[in-house]
Amino acid sequence: MCGIVGYIGKKDSLPVLLEGLRRLEYRGYDSAGVALLENGVIRVVKTQGKIKNLDALLAKEKKTCSNIGIAHTRWATHGAPTKLNAHPHSDCRNNFSVVHNGIIENFSSLKNELIKEGHKFISETDTEVAAHLVEKYYKGNLKEAFLKAVNKLEGSFAIVLMSSKYPDRLLFARLGSPLIAGVGKGENFLASDVPAILSHTNKVIYVKDCQAGEIRKDKISLFNLKGKTQPLKVEKILWDLESAQKSGYPHFMLKEIHEQPSVLKHLAAAGIKFDKKLTGALKNARQVSIVACGTAYHAGMVGKYVIEEMARVPVSVDVSSEFRYRSPIIDSRSVLIAISQSGETADTLAAVREAKNKGAKIVSICNVVGSSLTRESDFVFYTHAGPEIGVASTKAYTAQLMVLYLFGLNLARIKKSLPVATISKYNKILRNIHTHARLILKNCSRRICDVAGRHHNFGSFLFLGRNLNYPSALEGALKLKEISYIPAEGYAAGEMKHGPIALIDEYRAVVCIAPESKIYEKMISNIQEIEARKGKIVIIATQGNNDIKKYSKEVIFIPKIAELFSPILAALPLQLFAYYIAAKRGCDIDQPRNLAKSVTVE
Fold it and tell me: What 3-state class would DSSP assign to 339?
């Protein structure tokens, strides 16, 4: 969610900080600010709104040079998105300034105690208590005061502290929210995510939960929350900044949609392998559970169909935020698959910890190397999709689907639930599916843009699918509402007569996912019911099925493929449809209002 950047070194810190903030804009935010240490005094400049508003404010001020600073983009939780609530926040005497990502759950009681002791607060945020706690505990030792303050906090946080008394260092700590340290030459960095600092260094340290530390221009130290020194592990980022840029596309989302064939090709070619421990765990497992949020949850729903079909193993799927609260029946004979693009999704991490406490083995499907989820998992399968900057997930979704298909085939091999010839046939389909994806993008984009142009003024949409493409309907609806702000519902088509059909009239647009399948005729019956009630129908169908044109002029064709694998291909036109509708409406496609790329708080 919020973006954090910190710098200390030889350069003027302000350009470094602002560049870092811009590269974190995709995380979602509603205010921004910086704190610079200049001639022993902390100068804070902040504003509500976009970074360009902060640029305008800074342009009006006298230019100075500071070699140390912290910066922040805030996504409001406690208090409205105002200038006063924007980060950084300081103590009463402006000796300590902090930026923070996460939620301090006990801030109210801490704030009341500090007020009684004479501290003056100026914001509604939970974050401000951290600065005042450091002020309270400071007796000449900054590290000691910082750790005392951090240990008083309950909830989740990535927090960075700058002090006017110590111009040679920044302190930081992490519990539940992502934070990395960047290793440079004569300079060091802190950030919420790699893109913020990748133009300066490709060497990073992933700060772990319950770790703290400090950066100086020529040194990085790590210690636990009790102050005990911990070892540093420097990792090299293997992708470059160009991968996180638009490369000529008008939006990151469109670029990432078009990257999907390459991602699918490389994943299918590489495959996945089960080691002996995972094979043993799966052989002994009496159930597989999947937890995820948002788009990853829809991938998990497809995964249930796929794994049960291929491996004949019972699979349950839960929204991560609900998993812990239904007393799930999980034990040492359970395998839990956690799916997350960022690996920092707070609800998914909480579900994983609940399952681990009950003895389950954890398998994660994740895009980010070194993320919290991967470190807490027993087994990890990376999606290798590269940086996904658009808030609405596209390539991460189809990459997650691919890994789930590969997982299902590997499990089928272990369980001997499919003939060897069938496994070979399915692997061949997966290795070739990237060519079908490429054809959709090449041949259908203009058609989808035209269809979107005729439908972008509809006030609401219904997405219908059956069997494996019921999750596709949910995902199509989510994409549309995320970036166009049009109310949209995804439904199992068989449920239409149990309520949603009441909504159908000439003002309702209905997207029907109807590829060739064993339940195709049932889907046609649903389409006829919509037609009879004058609903405006858009159909996603299999290439060559010209008969379907009699039900609607608005048909988008996808290449013919076995029904089991159709969700991967169906995803692309649904993504493009949402994209072009949002573009027609002039929406902020890469940074939709109120949304954040990585949801790091519950």
Answer: strand
Give 268-274's long-range contacts (Cβ < 8 A, gap of 24+).
Answer: 268/402, 268/406, 268/427, 268/430, 268/431, 268/433, 268/434, 269/431, 270/384, 271/406, 271/427, 272/381, 272/403, 272/406, 272/407, 272/410, 273/410, 274/410, 274/411, 274/414
- Name the fold adopted by 246-418: Rossmann fold (3.40.50)
- Among left, alpha and beta (phi > 0; psi -120 to 50; other), residue 594 is left
Supply the DSSP symbol for 390: S
Range 409-429 burial, b when 16+ CB lie within 10 A, else e? bbbbbeeebbeeeebeebeeb
The reply to whether 3-243 and 246-418 are identical in fold is no
Task: Check residue 388 and give its pLDDT.
Answer: 87
Count of C-beta atoms within a 10 Å radius of residue 430: 20
Paired tokens of 450: 């035209």
Question: What is d(CA 462, CA 490) in angstroms, rounded to the nearest whole number?
Answer: 6
The amino acid that residue 263 corresponds to is: V
Residue 496 is predicted with a pLDDT of: 79
Which CATH number describes the domain made up of 436-592?
3.40.50.10490
Q: Output the pLDDT for position 25.
A: 79
Return the pLDDT at 595.
75
pLDDT band at 76 (very low <50, low <70, confident <90, very high): confident
- Report pTM: 0.79
End-to-end CA distance of the chain: 11
Active-site choice (2, 366, 444, 587): 2
Using pLDDT thresholds of 50, 70 and 90, give the confidence band for residue 193: confident
Strands 287-292 and 488-492: unpaired
| Domain assignments of the chain as residue spans, ordered by start | 3-243, 246-418, 436-592
Q: Are 239 and 387 in contact (CB under 8 A)?
A: yes
What is the four-CA torsion angle of 122, 126, 130, 136, rounded to 10 degrees? 60
Has residue 1 got a pLDDT over 60? no
On the 0-12 / 13-18 / 19+ scale of CB atoms within 10 A, 49 is middle
Residue 244's pLDDT band, with cuts at 50, 70 and 90, is low
Q: The tokens of 271 are what?
A: 């495959």
Torsion, Cα of 204, 205, 206, 209 (10° steps): -160
User: Do 360 and 330 touch, CB atoms closer than 8 A?
Assistant: yes
Confidence label for 602 from pLDDT (cuts 50, 70 and 90): low
Q: Is 378 exposed, middle or buried (0-12, 13-18, 19+ CB in 10 A)?
A: middle
**Per-residue pLDDT at 49 exceeds 90:** no
pLDDT reading at 10 higher than 70: yes
Catalytic residue among 46, 111, 217, 597: 597
SS3 of residue 407 by DSSP = helix
Examine the residue annotation and report whether 366 is marked as an active-site residue of this protein.
no
Whether 358 is catalytic is no
- What CATH class does 3-243 carry? alpha beta
